[in-house]
Task: structure prediction
Amino acid sequence: MPYSRVFEPFEFSRIEMNNHILMPAMHIGMAADGFMNDGFFDFYEERAKARPGPGLIIIGGCYVEKRGMGAPNFVGLDDDRFIGRLKEFTDVVHKHDTPVAAQLYHGGRYSASFLTGEQAVSSSAVFSNFTREMPHALTEEEIAEVQEHYGQAARRARDAGFDASELIVCAGYLVNQFLSPLTNKREDRYGGDLDARMTFMRETIAAIKSATGDDFPLICRLSGSDFMEGSHTLEETPVVAAEMERCGVDFISVTGGWHETRVPQIPMSVPRGAYVYLAEGVRRAVSSIPVACCNRINDPGLAEKILQEDRADIVAMARAFIADPRILEKARAGRPQDIRHCIACNQGCFDHVMMLQPITCLVNPRVNRERETELTPAPVKKNILVAGGGPAGMECAWVAAHRGHQVTLCEETAALGGQANLASIPPGREEWSEMVAYLVQQLQNKGVEVMLSQLVSPEIVEELNPDVLVMATGAEQVVPAIAGVDSPNVVLAWDVLTEKVSTGKRVAVVGGGAVGIETASFLAESGKQVMVIEMLERCGTDIGISTRWTLLQQADRLGVQFMTASCVKEITPQGLKAESENGLKDIVADTIVLAVGSRAHDELEDFLATEGIKHKFEIRKIGDCASPRKALDAIHEGFELGRTL
Result:
């Protein structure tokens, strides 16, 4: 598509952007004791050096004082000793003509004492459901100290060569805590009505401006709606935005939600661009400063549409740049089919942040390893046969072919994609198909010979004479040893999702992991009455922390019932018998769906041994055929083997 707006230059407050795309601050976990590591440098340089890369990069969060940091792997701005390393970083980014800003971070009551060694602080002593701790209510004297810390952090950012600083006024962090009536219960000049609750924000902005001078731009990251009952909505935030402009803020970047919100902001189930309306509401409240929109914008085509419809001045794309550093370069070159889209799985980014680990990416295994994973030509060209066209096999095949190997991929079904095709079927999980489409495109680009509906047979092996056979044959569903499991009313979850089988009106799903929950929602959406029976105390234990609650929430909305800590003892013509601490219970169901897990589908190796040809080539196993795990593991193993063969 033509991009008449995305690639236009844009300027605000002496910052020159070569396009209308912002890469907003993300916690990437690539620092130690406040100092960026080499991975941090490599991650951002990989994105800055694209042609074009983001028009502006914001890094963060950079904590302004230790008791407000998010984790030990955040970037420090609370001491002058960090300036030298930060200056090295800005020099690297500026080498590629990309402006870069630093986000001023203070978690307030969202900072955990077990990480900081100090009690968290906030506007008021209101218990944090996020950290499960009670913060200390700042005194007026302590407030002045915190504001001084904000100002000095901004001054360090300026001295380190950053082009701007960003004050985070969203996500339930400290400034947000002073703004919200949920967390601000003060009776002094910092509490009361909205105007009074903005006092801390006003003074903090003034402290930053005083420390840096008015010539150093200040951006604010604002929640368009907190999505917390009793807190700010799009009625209050335009008032806050107008006050920000009056106080001298140069640019507002709009997001939404707190960590505690029960309104999903970033998972796959959120429609693309769902929260652009928040930026529109804020934009109407300001007169002369630009406003950026954010959340679930992973495609330059959508960004172009938003800009053409004049819904925002700037489009912020965060995880899109994690997934594909050259997303804009590919769009401008007329190669949108080669964009590796973020699918909002959260497995490598948000889940890793919550586990205090550096981020990676399901679809981009090079994240946090950019320097050591540059794809180079293979020193010895090999003939490689890949058995299996799921994510692991496809990733390995195209990467190996890119390096110069001759690669043939055999897939026993009529379509590539493997379990990713199944994953894309349940409601709100459609983005998985984007990953499959990308991998299929790369196989075509790199000249991989793809043979569909083709098992690896002795004849194929003899014909191709491979040096290496890569087994990526995936997994198969487990059928548990339950009395009556071979009854005609029993079906497998994968067969339900692909509609190879039909079910009755009343369905019992045995297994409450990801597949069981998603299959239950798939059935409930079509009007079925569904109950999930799970042996463990909790359902969805195999789902990442940032996605699990949204899948359970969706299942609950669709009317799915859950029975946990229960073991299925017998399947009967009328349903099943499940045992819990309360005894044996009869569950009436027309159809029983099995979703109790999978096992490695690795019989090919034994078959080749039986045929007497196993010794003729090297055999390597990747993905679920080595051990059933997550898609992230499959893609990463495929990439790693492809780049080292």
